[in-house]
Design brief:
single chain; about 220 residues; alpha+beta
């Protein structure tokens, strides 16, 4: 088992720098700025192992209090492991980061200008992850895919992430495994509060995201 945290401040630096340029939000790789964004995602997720496990999107606010936003799981396949899953979600659901500088209505209009009726689902998923500043991950390769799914159910109940709408009663037989993952998440959350690599950029990001939160997100 291993664990770590992906700090997204580098993505927000890119967002602040390129606000006003629709090309930076392009998903299909046809613009230079869109490809630059993808390179940042790849670099940020490079330390994440190609392993099975769990990941937690969340936010530190300007007082460094943490909010759980979304809990996901990753498998062992080439495109389903932790590194691939996180990188692809950051690329495909990039609108979550741009909500720090655009309203939801502005983002919808940008999507329509660039992609027409495409990528609506990507935008809608991204809207649920607005305000994310970090993604915490925990690898777990010694469980079956079925067990990972059941452990995920337990973690969702315990962590109560605001973007996970599907809730089921977790099984009692994997509670110890879920507790181990929960404890690793908590340790990373506590460590992140004093992370020296974030510094003032984290406070700036939190304030920008707090301002974005005042704007209504699509249901």
């Amino acid at each position: 088992m291993a664990e770590g945290t992906v700090c997204l401040s580098g993505l927000y630096d890119f967002v602040f720098k390129h606000r006003g340029d629709d090309a930076a939000l392009q998903i299909n790789g046809t613009t230079q700025l869109g490809r630059e964004y993808c390179k940042i995602c790849k670099r940020l997720t490079a330390p994440v192992p190609s392993a099975q496990g769990f990941y937690l999107w969340g936010q530190y606010n300007d007082k460094r209090f943490w909010t759980n936003i979304y809990l996901g799981k990753a498998g062992l396949g080439k495109s389903a492991n932790l590194r691939s899953r996180l990188c692809e979600e950051l690329k495909d659901e990039r609108a979550f980061a741009w909500r720090a500088v655009y309203t939801s209505d502005e983002l919808s209009k940008i999507r329509e200008r660039m992609h027409g009726p495409k990528y609506v689902a990507n935008w809608e998923r991204a809207a649920k992850k607005v305000l994310t500043t970090h993604i915490i991950w925990v690898s777990m390769n010694d469980k079956s895919n079925a067990d990972v799914l059941r452990i995920e159910e337990d973690l969702i109940e315990a962590l109560n992430p605001i973007a996970n709408l599907r809730r089921t009663t977790p099984p009692p037989d994997l509670k110890k495994d879920a507790t181990v993952v929960f404890d690793e998440f908590r340790e990373q959350i506590h460590h992140g509060r004093s992370c020296p690599t974030c510094g003032n950029r984290l406070a700036k990001l939190a304030l920008a995201c707090s301002a974005a939160k005042l704007q209504p997100s699509p249901a």
